[in-house]
Write a structure and sequence with these properties.
By secondary structure, the protein is an alpha+beta fold. The longest helix is centred in the last third of the chain and has 36 residues. This is Molecular chaperone Tir.
Length: about 160
């Protein structure tokens, strides 16, 4: 079976499992799925035989960009907090996006569904965690900006 037909079948089965009507790739090998108020984008890369799952997990916060970027990079480090996915910045849209490539060449539908489900849960977790991460970043920056001798008694 041709790989594009195979991925089309996997996505169609995903649509049935999620009780969505006619889930299919468009002419650009792209589709989106809304699951529990989370939008997951799927894009088939025929050349590499991989499917890209991506979802916006939050907006880029005001200020403290460098400090926040460091925290996201720490989460990405050897995929410690991303379970194989990566956090990235869509600079044009000012969004933080979770992305994961899925190699579907030898993947049966149950394993594909499991990978999709893990990605949805991971997306939800990051959507929930980002506001707290923004807040803790802002607080740590504010605490660091206080001079160390600010409370010293001067004679």
């Amino acid at each position: 079976m041709d790989s594009t037909n195979y991925i089309s079948e996997l996505i169609e089965q995903l649509g049935f499992s999620l009780e969505l009507e006619e889930l299919e790739l468009d002419e650009n090998n792209f589709c989106s799925v809304d699951v529990q108020n989370i939008t997951i984008l799927l894009q088939w890369e025929e050349k590499t035989q991989r499917l890209l799952l991506s979802s916006a997990v939050g907006e880029l916060g005001e200020g403290h960009f460098q400090e926040f970027a460091v925290k996201l990079l720490q989460a990405n480090y050897v995929w410690n907090d991303t379970r194989g996915a990566s956090l990235a910045l869509d600079a044009d849209a000012e969004l933080i996006v979770l992305c994961q490539w899925v190699d579907v060449r030898c993947l049966e539908y149950p394993a594909f569904y499991d990978a999709f489900e893990v990605f949805v849960n991971l997306t939800r977790n990051w959507k929930d965690a980002l506001p707290e991460l923004f807040e803790s970043t802002a607080q740590s920056v504010e605490n660091e900006s206080i001079p160390t001798d600010a409370y010293a008694i001067r004679i």
